[in-house]
Specification:
The protein is of the alpha/beta class. It has a single domain, classed as Acetylglutamate kinase-like (Carbamate kinase, 3-Layer(aba) Sandwich), CATH 3.40.1160. Helix content is about 45%, strand content about 15%. It has nine helices and nine strands. The protein has a seven-stranded mixed beta sheet, with helices on both faces. The two termini are about 25 Å apart. Bound molecules: uridine 5'-triphosphate (UTP). Uridine 5'-triphosphate binds next to helix 1, helix 3, helix 4 and helix 6.
Length: about 240
Amino acid sequence: MPAKRGGPTAPVVVSVGGSVLFRDEGDREYLAKLSELLRDLGRSSTLLVTTGGGRTARQYIRLGRELGLTEVELDEIGIEVTRLHARLLAARIGPPCPARPPTTLAEAVHEAHRASPVVLGGTEPGHTTDGVAAMLAVRLRARTLVNATDVDGVYDRDPHRFPDARRVERMAWPQFRGLVAAGTSTEAGQNFLFDRLGAELLARAGIPLAIVDGRDLPNLEKAVRGERFRGSRIDG
Ligand code: UTP
């Protein structure tokens, strides 16, 4: 019989956006502290971390598109950048985190059976590192997936345009999937709140998604540990 999903010792997956890793402001200090936190969290439960490509990936993708590359080629370039970021973080975390980021889902699952944390970038064209994180969460029957991103949750309307926009603390999957589908296209370098395929996979498997500001490390820690956090929780 397959192991039950969601127990307190079940694995946790964290998707860290590229725009969180690199902001041109306090990056060195942030990356050092993030590495320490992930090393620490990886000791108490099996932890898998995906790293996004951020602005660097988008720059390459834009240039490649101007050069006439196909969407698949652009995705492949994006994947290389996410792997570069994974390598940087993995090297800073050090053993037992594998120094070479796994390149497939199967490899990541294999590594997670003997090491924690495991840090990786993308796998194949057609989705983002959020999608990879969601696939891993489903495959490993994770307790939760934490999306460490550049907003502190889902708002009822665009917080940049409406100062009175309110953060939604809890949202059901159908509503969230609608938001993501309306906000994304399938082009390389596109993402809004969360990967579309990833949202579908998590909803189907009943794995909760926490959306938190990835630069707020004490809060990220709470979300990973299953404590009360500031952000949005998508489930039900
Ligand atoms: P990201 O996961 O960083 O996408 O991958 P993103 O969400 O657009 O960017 P941030 O980091 O959250 O700001 C960058 C690009 O690499 C390709 C996609 O084109 C994606 O947009 N990619 C990534 C893949 O094709 N497959 C993968 O598994 C991962």
